[in-house]
Design a protein that fits this description.
- The protein has about 280 residues and is α/β, with parallel strands linked by helices.
- The chain has a single domain, classed as Ribonuclease Z/Hydroxyacylglutathione hydrolase-like (Metallo-beta-lactamase, Chain A), CATH 3.60.15.
- It has nine helices and 14 strands.
- The strands form two sheets. Strands 6-5-4-3-2-1-14 form a seven-stranded mixed beta sheet.
- The longest helix is centred in the N-terminal third of the chain and has 13 residues.
- The radius of gyration is 19 Å and the shape is globular.
- The two termini are about 35 Å apart.
- Bound molecules: zinc ion (2 copies).
- One zinc ion binds next to loops.
């Protein structure tokens, strides 16, 4: 009997579904929206936004409903992170509704994001404010480090792509460490300017990133690829912010980009442990 139980334990441990320790994944929601999870630790990036600008992928209704209700895999989310205030990444109304529906979730974002939420919340903002963590940074500033239990959240500001047109927008790059593995990097709408990453090299070198999620314009572009491979040096790169035109045609877009992209909402990628 003991031998049978022992064999069963070995069988379960060999089954990927039960070897939870190294099991982490990233699920694509739309545009730059991602759920990253490792066991009980879960982080949502750029998950509540209402503008497609006629080009980008919105989060579909069943997915938004599941997030709002906290049904698996969207149960027990720890942190909700926003790269910047643009409407294809963040909208105050659904974000506030989510924070009210999921009262344990903490939010991390720029002062512009937090201010928009506080303004919308109005007189009820006091109880909400303790869960809103505003990151006030400008490009070139030293990284901010925030803790949430076993999750470490760090941010730097990197200019938004498009130059002067978006100079007033604070675009944050977040490096999030879920209890040692995985460490993921969400880059918002970063501009692939080498000098901006060069002056953050100490921050980039301080901790190894397993998976980076750059906007897709970094892929197949020499200076974008150089930043990824020389400065960030992640094990895995998955491009995001891919236009809706790529839905159902991901392989064509991935081939053209010369790398991995999230194109279809619901896509799932394992995050691999490298030693
Ligand atoms: Zn933007
Ligand atoms: Zn964008």
């Amino acid at each position: 009997m003991i031998r049978i139980v022992g064999a069963l334990v070995i069988l379960l441990l060999n089954n990927p579904a039960f070897s939870h320790e190294d099991q982490a994944d990233a699920r694509y929601l739309g545009n730059e929206g991602i759920l990253v999870r490792h066991g009980e630790l879960k982080v949502l990036f750029d998950a509540f936004y209402d503008s497609s600008y006629g080009t980008y992928v919105l989060v579909n209704t069943p997915t938004r409903d599941a997030m709002m209700a906290g049904t698996p895999p969207y149960d027990g989310v720890d942190a909700l992170i926003f790269s910047h205030v643009h409407g294809d990444h963040f909208s105050p109304k659904p974000t506030l509704a989510y924070l009210r529906a999921q009262s344990a979730v903490h939010l991390y974002g720029s002062t512009q994001v937090v201010d928009a939420l506080l303004k919308l919340a109005g007189p009820q903002q006091a109880q909400l404010a303790v869960r809103l963590h505003a990151v006030a940074l400008s490009p070139g500033d030293s990284a901010v480090k925030l803790g949430l239990g076993n999750i470490e959240i760090e941010a730097i500001a990197v200019p938004h792509s498009g130059g002067a047109r978006h100079a007033a927008i604070t675009n944050l790059l977040f490096r999030v460490d879920l209890d040692g593995f995985p460490v993921v990097m969400h880059m918002g709408d970063a501009d692939p300017i080498d000098a901006e990453f060069a002056r953050q090299q100490a921050f980039l070198d301080r901790k190894h990133t397993h998976t980076a999620f750059p906007p897709y314009w970094f892929l197949g572009l020499d200076r974008g690829e150089a930043i990824l491979h020389n400065r960030i040096q992640p094990d895995q790169v998955i491009g995001i912010h891919v236009p809706e035109a790529a839905v159902g045609d991901g392989e064509t877009w991935r081939t053209r980009a010369g790398g991995d992209l999230f194109t279809d909402p619901g896509e799932l990628r394992d995050i691999m442990h490298s030693h």
